[in-house]
Amino acid sequence: MAETLSDAVARRRTFAIIAHPDAGKTTLTEKLLLFGGAIQLAGEVKAKKDRIQTRSDWMKIERERGISVVTSVMTFEYGDHVFNLLDTPGHEDFADDTYRTLTAVDAAVMVLDAARGIEPRTLKLFEVCRLRDIPIITFVNKLDRESRNPFEILDEIEEKLALDTAPITWPIGLGKNFSGTYHLKHNTVRRSDADVEPIAVNGPEADNVAGLLPEYQREAFIEEVNLAREACRPFDMESFREGHLTPVYFGSALRNFGVRDLIEAIGDWAPVPRAQEGDSRKVEATEEKMTSFVFKIQANMDPNHRDRIAFVRVCSGRLQRGMKAKLVRTGKQISLTAPQFFFARNRITADEAVAGDVVGIPNHGTLRIGDTLTEGEDILFRGVPNFAPEILRRVRLSDAMKAKKLREALQQMAEEGVVQLFSPEDGSPAIVGVVGALQLDVLKERLKMEYTLPVDFEISRFSICRWISSDTKGEVDKFIAAHRGDIARDLDDDPVYLAQHQFGLNYEAERWKDIRFTAVKDYQ
Ligand code: GDP
Q1: H/E element holding 516?
Q2: Which of 25, 65, 277, 504 is deepest in the core (most CB within 10 A)?
Q3: Pocket of ligand 1 contains residue 416 by CB under 6 Å
């Protein structure tokens, strides 16, 4: 018998990994995919990295990220569960992409380097998860190297993140003596991830636990485990789901320790696909009718096929191959002829994806970030954010004959979320905005490679950009009329006010009390 929708939804776990660069996100991803059977050999991901020829800095960054070049979502199965792992760029210049991706997950795995603890990017990404009430499972990585004491790491999480911790496993030894993970509650051991099933033991003092350590370390280890059991907080599901408590696992992604413990934790504890807030109502994942939204667009994933993939999070129902869906922004129907599932190296056409799944929809520019697709209902999912750019530039083109081509190219890049594009009301050339400087390198490189448009950037006289709105009718029009030279329109034709400096913005905000100047806009 075919699986019911609610059974299928209940098996889904959709999550992202958040980490400071170098903590081990890529290595952990490879191992998760390996145990999930999505790749044969963990080395394959790296092999792929080396084949990709690149030039500029941004591409190097992408290459170093390896797997992310290939795809932004990876689907795999382990045990009874279907996992959708969404990749997030590690570099902070691509922060807006990361924030949008986090709108599409139900849980996050926070990877810490056991010697470094909480690092700046970890903190930032954690704050985004907290804002969205995303429950977090912690994986303390690199225990095979010189590490801090586990208690010290737990303290740091509690202090820096104001997050309760509940250690679930405990490392048996550290550094070169690291020899496995001990489950504090189940009294089981995994000596490495080669142990598919954990081994039942008599307690920390057993030969196959403390006995794995050099004699002089055994007593201290047994004491530590007893202390962890008595003094640490027990795991509490409600507190975890509300984002107040994180279960903590220890391991080494590189050396195959603790990764199975982690996958099982995601399966057991990460929430099933959550209900999504629409503009008119909340949509439950188990509703029969399909709804979904686009949180990311990726172009040219495969240089041999110039395609553009919209990544869609299914919010409810089943997204079936060949179905027609309504694109709510335009009211038009589109055919979902070839939705794709992504694995580590390949993609397959998906006959059906259910709520919680993330699929790629190939298209030629019909879909934009933030778009909602439904089976007819006029509902919009909000919350895929658009951040005011921090760097504004004019694009200079040496060949004036190509101005039209440039406009089209910039429009496409803006729809993909590579840059934001603003058209000044006074008709002067377009301004591009980015959150991080590397995004400008991406833009330049892609305009050259894909559109043969060599460009340079000129400093614009503006440095700040704010969306403007008002509850008072006519107020925005009045403001625009009074500031025509400082107004531009974004991709949706919404007006922004461009200021030369913070002082200028404060001055206008003081004078125009009925106008809201906002630094974040939800895509609609
Ligand atoms: P990312 O930047 O977070 O994706 O980090 P990577 O997965 O690329 O790892 C950064 C470096 O740390 C690489 O040289 C990895 O081989 C290494 N690494 C990752 N996990 C471990 C681990 O568990 N133990 C040790 N010793 N090295 C690790």
Answers
A1: strand 516-518
A2: 25
A3: no
